[in-house]
Write a structure and sequence with these properties.
By secondary structure, the protein is α/β, with parallel strands linked by helices. The chain has a domain of 247 residues: 3-Layer(aba) Sandwich (Rossmann fold). The strands form five sheets. It has a seven-stranded parallel sheet, sandwiched between helices. Helix 6 links the parallel strand 7 and strand 8. Helix 3 packs parallel to helix 5 and helix 9 crosses helix 12. The structure holds nicotinamide-adenine-dinucleotide and thymidine-5'-diphosphate (TYD). The site of thymidine-5'-diphosphate (TYD) has 12 residues, from helix 7 and strand 10.
Amino acid sequence: MTYLVTGGAGFIGANFVKYVLAKHPDIRLVILDALTYAGNIGTIADELKDPRVKFVKGDIVDSEVVAKIFSENEIDFVVNFAAESHVDRSIENPQLFLETNILGAQNLLENAKKAWSKGKDESGYPLYREGVKFLQVSTDEVYGSLGETGYFTETTPLDPRSPYSASKAGADMIVTAYSETYKMPVNITRCSNNYGPYHFPEKLIPLIIKNILEGKKLPVYGDGTNVRDWLYVEDHCKAIDTVLLHGRPGQVYNVGGHNEMKNIDIVRLTIATVRRLTEENPEYRKALKTAPENINDNLITFVKDRLGHDKRYAIDPAKITAELGWQPETRFADGIVKTIRWYLENQDWVDEVTSGEYMKYYEKMYANR
Ligand code: NAD
Ligand code: TYD
């Protein structure tokens, strides 16, 4: 099988590349990534030495680039991770999110349709090469925001509220349109918030870890009571691979681990864990750019809230568990320690990905909060 993995140099895409190469010895991968600020080729440097892997630097919106990939490789699966993924950036520049996330998905679908269709049936629907599939990696954010109770299921109406989630919902709708109109074999997975290695430090958990190590303030939006449902990234990768191989065409699968946490609790737990790990292990103290006694809750600062800040996300993953037997394997208590250890051991990676425009971004985004 040959997978086209878009966004394979980003957080989840890179974890997926590592996961499937280890899991399936006989696959081939073509990775398409534009290497935006969020993509880092160094993250997949070892994988790029693997003869099973090809890398193409390019934009998913560019029809020529995508058509060339399909003409030069017999692609069986498209797994579309490539996206602009940060809500705060979408508030600053919505248009880029619509271009990449919606037009990019449509361009991939169109090229896949052309490459995969072999004639038509008597009603005029395209017929497809056996075994092909397009998987759109979506998010629970397309369902909007929950109150104190309830869960998102696959039948919850789409109700996106940020430019990011609106663009992801738009992509989901065009994927569904290709499934209905052209009978293209597709799946959509909608996962809750991921955490783990290679997470870019603009998102809550890696940003907090980075700031703690530098003794910088930890910006908590609003009153810190917003709730996210956290899943270890490898569990998400496993879910995607399972849906790709076994999901019923045309179906949506929610992915989540029943792990709701308030932001403020995540921040407090992260502080306590960094403090404990650096106290226990002298090697980890090398990652500190501040005195160990500075690592305490006084670093927390409540800042101006995000515009349109969704209150609560919570996924009901019953369908993927019942139909495909998927279950999360990493408990949050273990996953957060694994993640923090990874950052303590991989400060070179953090320095590399934050050496570009990151500081400018940080100053601009947090200056007037
Ligand atoms: P990320 O921002 O870390 O990575 C995105 C990758 O896409 C980067 O490598 C970037 O260079 C690449 N990219 C961006 N624009 C591109 C373009 N026009 N052409 C080609 N490549 C491009 O994102 P992530 O957190 O790894 O998320 C991956 C996918 O999973 C996204 O579609 C996101 O919506 C979805 N998702 C993320 C989460 C989460 O918690 N991070 C949860 C659910 C779903
Ligand atoms: P984030 O990691 O950006 O993911 P998403 O917005 O897609 O859920 O944010 C997770 C939560 O943390 C969200 O409620 C916003 C909040 N947050 C902060 O309080 N401070 C921060 O500096 C960031 C980046 C996020």
